[in-house]
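Students often ask why we bother encoding 3D structure as a string. The short answer is that it lets us treat folding as translation between two languages. Here is a chain of 344 residues written in the first language.
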Amino acid sequence: MKKILAIILAAVLVLGLAACAAKPAEGQTAEQKTDDKQYKVAMICDSSINDGGWGSACYNAMVDACAKMNWTYEVTDSISQDAYYDSIAAYCALGYDMIYAPGNQYTDAVLQAAEEYPDIAFALLNGAESTPAKAKNGNVSSLLPNAQQIGWIAGALAGLMTESGKLGFIGGMELDTTKGKIAGYEEAAKYVAEQEGKTVELLSVPYANSFSDAPKGKEFATELIAQGADVFFGDASAVDSGAREAIDAYNKSAGAVKVYDIGQPADILGQNECIICSQVTDNSAMIAASMQAVMDGTFGGETLYGTLQNGALSAGKISDLVPAEIQTKYQAYLDQMIADTFMK
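And here it is in the second language, the structure alphabet:
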């Protein structure tokens, strides 16, 4: 029955794609081939690819990888949880070479589809280390940025910048990767603050149980500001965007920027006045590596890691709101992270 639904959905997708087909990577014509085959990848996403946060960054990473590897791509975004499997299966029925699912929340749907479509590769961003081994056909790989290091990048700056000693973090869903980012954020902030003669408290983390509920983000940020939070980080896509709106509104009413936000996973400095820096993840490198493995016939059964050491993780541009002396200290901490001497 589920495969019948997938075929029906595939037929609908064919009608939608007939006019424009799968989008060619930049500078690529429909006639260009790679190894005498035009490879194609499909992305499914529960947030919008125009959310200015997670969805946008993950989509742009795929586009960049396609441009590098000469693949074509298609995307279905803003889908509900109960549509994960059907959306994936529809692309499988259309013969896509790889399915790119940007989040641990897609794990069950990916494993189900991977079992039913053994010849298709499934790249699961933020997938658990244990997930590839669960795929009966060996056709799933996890792309796993180091969550602790992501938290460190934001936490070190938060520890330097906080004046109230209270930090905010907003979560989308209670995923293992989100918990890892929270832990890294808290431990780095506390360590750095201690070096500065300060104490730091991470306020209770609220979860929206969604990556698209921007009003929840506004609500959470307003509550956390009322509790004294003056530096924020998050892992909630459009929910984070809503939080930034609330932070900007607070700062406007205060007549100065007194509450800050650190973005992720792309460099979004300038998107909102409150943003002082971003944690940047180069997901495109891991996606491109997955594409190469598909072309080489070696895809599946592994975890591809993204770290500060291999350049997949970094800090973005820093706002002028961050004093020069703090920027210097922050860079020193980033250098320690890369050298694996941070907090040691």
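Translate back mentally: Residues 1-12, 14-34 have pLDDT under 50 and may be disordered. Keep this in mind for the problem set.
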